[in-house]
Design goal:
Blueprint: H1 20-29, H2 33-37, H3 41-57, H4 60-73, H5 79-89
Helix pairs in contact: 1-3, 3-4
Length: 93
Protein backbone atom coordinates (compact mmCIF):
# COMPACT_ATOMS: atom_id res chain seq x y z
CA UNK A 1 0.00 0.00 0.00
CA UNK A 2 1.46 3.39 -0.87
CA UNK A 3 2.30 5.25 2.31
CA UNK A 4 3.88 8.60 2.94
CA UNK A 5 3.78 10.15 6.42
CA UNK A 6 2.19 13.57 6.23
CA UNK A 7 2.81 16.28 8.80
CA UNK A 8 -0.89 17.14 8.83
CA UNK A 9 -2.11 13.62 9.65
CA UNK A 10 -4.86 13.85 12.24
CA UNK A 11 -7.62 11.53 13.38
CA UNK A 12 -10.40 14.09 12.96
CA UNK A 13 -12.67 11.98 15.16
CA UNK A 14 -12.64 8.86 17.27
CA UNK A 15 -15.20 6.81 15.27
CA UNK A 16 -13.89 3.70 13.54
CA UNK A 17 -15.31 2.45 10.25
CA UNK A 18 -14.91 -1.31 10.36
CA UNK A 19 -15.85 -1.99 6.73
CA UNK A 20 -13.96 0.86 5.03
CA UNK A 21 -11.76 -1.55 3.07
CA UNK A 22 -14.78 -3.47 1.80
CA UNK A 23 -16.54 -0.21 0.88
CA UNK A 24 -13.47 0.97 -1.01
CA UNK A 25 -13.28 -2.31 -2.95
CA UNK A 26 -17.04 -2.25 -3.58
CA UNK A 27 -16.94 1.27 -5.00
CA UNK A 28 -13.98 0.37 -7.22
CA UNK A 29 -15.20 -3.01 -8.50
CA UNK A 30 -18.97 -2.78 -8.26
CA UNK A 31 -19.05 -5.98 -6.20
CA UNK A 32 -21.43 -6.16 -3.25
CA UNK A 33 -20.22 -7.05 0.26
CA UNK A 34 -21.28 -10.69 -0.10
CA UNK A 35 -19.29 -11.04 -3.33
CA UNK A 36 -16.31 -9.36 -1.69
CA UNK A 37 -16.44 -11.86 1.19
CA UNK A 38 -16.06 -14.66 -1.37
CA UNK A 39 -12.85 -13.21 -2.81
CA UNK A 40 -9.52 -14.83 -2.12
CA UNK A 41 -7.51 -12.66 0.29
CA UNK A 42 -4.87 -11.96 -2.38
CA UNK A 43 -7.55 -10.80 -4.82
CA UNK A 44 -9.13 -8.63 -2.13
CA UNK A 45 -5.87 -6.89 -1.26
CA UNK A 46 -5.02 -6.44 -4.95
CA UNK A 47 -8.38 -4.72 -5.52
CA UNK A 48 -7.96 -2.65 -2.35
CA UNK A 49 -4.48 -1.50 -3.38
CA UNK A 50 -5.65 -0.57 -6.88
CA UNK A 51 -8.73 1.22 -5.53
CA UNK A 52 -6.62 3.22 -3.09
CA UNK A 53 -4.19 4.27 -5.82
CA UNK A 54 -7.06 5.10 -8.17
CA UNK A 55 -8.75 7.27 -5.53
CA UNK A 56 -5.52 9.11 -4.75
CA UNK A 57 -4.93 9.79 -8.45
CA UNK A 58 -8.15 11.81 -8.59
CA UNK A 59 -6.79 14.83 -6.68
CA UNK A 60 -3.66 16.95 -6.86
CA UNK A 61 -2.89 16.25 -3.19
CA UNK A 62 -3.36 12.53 -3.82
CA UNK A 63 -0.99 12.62 -6.79
CA UNK A 64 1.62 14.37 -4.64
CA UNK A 65 1.10 11.71 -1.96
CA UNK A 66 1.68 8.94 -4.52
CA UNK A 67 4.80 10.64 -5.90
CA UNK A 68 6.24 10.96 -2.40
CA UNK A 69 5.30 7.37 -1.53
CA UNK A 70 7.05 6.19 -4.71
CA UNK A 71 10.11 8.33 -4.02
CA UNK A 72 10.70 7.05 -0.49
CA UNK A 73 10.50 3.41 -1.64
CA UNK A 74 13.31 3.79 -4.19
CA UNK A 75 16.63 2.27 -3.17
CA UNK A 76 18.71 3.06 -6.26
CA UNK A 77 19.63 6.57 -7.39
CA UNK A 78 18.00 8.03 -10.50
CA UNK A 79 21.28 8.51 -12.35
CA UNK A 80 19.68 10.16 -15.38
CA UNK A 81 18.05 12.90 -13.25
CA UNK A 82 21.26 13.35 -11.28
CA UNK A 83 23.25 13.84 -14.51
CA UNK A 84 20.64 16.31 -15.80
CA UNK A 85 20.85 18.24 -12.54
CA UNK A 86 24.67 18.28 -12.67
CA UNK A 87 24.66 19.50 -16.29
CA UNK A 88 22.06 22.16 -15.47
CA UNK A 89 24.11 23.57 -12.57
CA UNK A 90 27.53 23.69 -14.26
CA UNK A 91 28.83 27.20 -14.77
CA UNK A 92 26.32 28.84 -12.42
CA UNK A 93 28.80 29.52 -9.59
Amino acid sequence: MPYYPKKTDSKGHEWAIYTIMEKTVSDYTGLNFYEIEELDIVEFYCYFRDARIYNLMQTEDGQEYLENAWRITQTAPDRKRLREKKIGTQGTS
